[in-house]
Specification:
The chain is of the alpha/beta class. The chain has helices at about 5-15, 20-25, 30-45, 60-85, 100-120, 130-140, 200-215, 225-235, 245-255, 285-295; strands at about 50-55, 55-60, 95-100, 125-130, 145-150, 160-170, 195, 220-225, 240-245, 255-260, 265-275. Strands 3, 4, 5, 6, 7, 8, 9, 10 and 11 form a nine-stranded mixed beta sheet that branches. Strands 1-2 form a two-stranded antiparallel sheet. The chain is elongated, with a radius of gyration of 23 Å.
Amino acid sequence: MSLNLHLLRLFESVARHQSFSRAAEALHVSQPAVSKGVRELEAQLGTPLLERGPGGVRPTEAGRILLVHARTVFSAEQAAEDALGALRGLRGGTLRIGASTTIATYFLPPLLGAFHRAYPDVDLRLTSANTVTVADLLMRRELDVALVEGPLDPGEILVQPWREDELVFIAAANHPLASRPGPLPLKALADETIVLREPGSGTRDTAWNALAQAGFTPRRILEIGGNEVIIRVVAAGLGIGILSAVAVADQEALGRLRTLPVAGITIRRLLTRLVLPNRQPSPATVAFDRLLDGQQTKI
């Protein structure tokens, strides 16, 4: 029995969007056509593939098994299309890049500009999310390039060093600690609210691990899902933040923030590339990887 790829595509879209209606919109077909196609595939395979729940549509156990293979098939299909596109000198196609927030905001824009100038006919799609989400998208083969900034349990993913980044403590320019001379003892932060990224963020994990290794547990923390919001909150005097030095450089130059040197603690981390083993990169991915290699710092 051979699988009908059209029906398989309908099923994969419903599973990915967790909704028949959203899948229909994404595929530009009617919802009844999607529902009918999934029923036909279930009848063909002799087993239910999807079930409805409070949070939407979810794959059954059989559906989850099929979904893994379906995404492999569609990834191979995309690789074939990209390979043919390479014969036309990268005149067309799409490059899907996923990156942790700091990388997407501060490191990637010059590289995206350089790539677009070299290959103007390749569509670029950038997803900015935290480390856990980027890794999940790569595993689902929804990304061609994945760059993250935090610790990660690799599982089936290869983690390759790219470049180094430093996290710094920041305070409002008029904060009392900002005017104190010399490196601050860590205990000077004991009564401060420590402003951190949300759980799942690589910046958060790196900062939290560094504080724990230094034997420091904040009495109060404020969790915020975004670098720019943290910068504004800290500049307004709500606490001491921990962010990448590149993320705060502009606001420090404008005199709105100060970095605080803290004795006995330096927070450095690797920014890394995530790669799926045995996955053939598209020509566009290879071309972008060359740009990344040019930005690689000695680790």
